[in-house]
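Closing statement on the adenosine-5'-triphosphate sub-project.
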Amino acid sequence: MAAIAIVVGVPGVGKTTVISRVVDRLGALGYNAEIINYGDIMLKKALELGLVENRDEMRKLPVTKQLYLQRVAAEWISKRSEEVDLILLDTHLFIRTPRGRWPGISENNIPYLKGVVQLVLIEADPEDISRRRMRDKSRIRSDYGSVSEIEADQLYNRYMSTSISIRYGCPVYILKNEEGKVDEAVEELVKVLERVITDSRVD
Ligand code: ATP
Ligand code: AMP
Ligand code: MG
């Protein structure tokens, strides 16, 4: 079973940016790490079913549909090859739906997500996150709210991270992704994940 590090953080904090570079750095160091973007897997199914036209529409679907997509994605993830040292699962501890915050990891998908050994919570200054969301024209994040809501969401993520940590018995590493300092965040995370990989290799 491949070891999994779950990587979370509020939308626009920089998860995808940071971990795409982390995987390259780990590769250069001789480790075989792979990214699975949970939203990509859900989107593939949602597009097949004609439910949405883009990834930012999924969180507005009825929660019953989101639960279905979430479970189908977890089943797919559970069947992934075991030939890697580490899977980095790019996802969310909660999704903002019209009915409120809904968990990204729960009894709906935990039975399929085995091998979780680390949680990485990426954070940044709420004002910086707000500006990143506005600058990033590739996504529609306008429904996410004000700077004070970002602050509240980052706090909510800290609360939720404790439940994941207790459920899997895994540590939570809080990584700051400061403005203009992606390189620093990447280097810091590479060091943590090297340790995760070497720990997982010990019988
Ligand atoms: P989502 O959860 O919505 O997928 P994300 O956490 O994956 O969001 P990214 O798409 O990686 O966020 O980054 C959002 C935007 O912020 C991108 O335009 C990216 O280039 C920019 N960004 C990421 N990290 C930094 C940083 N340290 N300084 C400045 N800009 C950054
Ligand atoms: P992302 O690109 O990481 O923002 O993911 C795109 C979308 O995928 C999110 O806005 C959610 O609708 C969905 N998504 C990602 N991870 C999960 C998850 N663990 N559970 C439910 N939905 C998710
Ligand atoms: Mg992303």
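The radius of gyration is 16 Å. With this model delivered, the sub-project is considered complete and its resources will be redirected to Aim 3.
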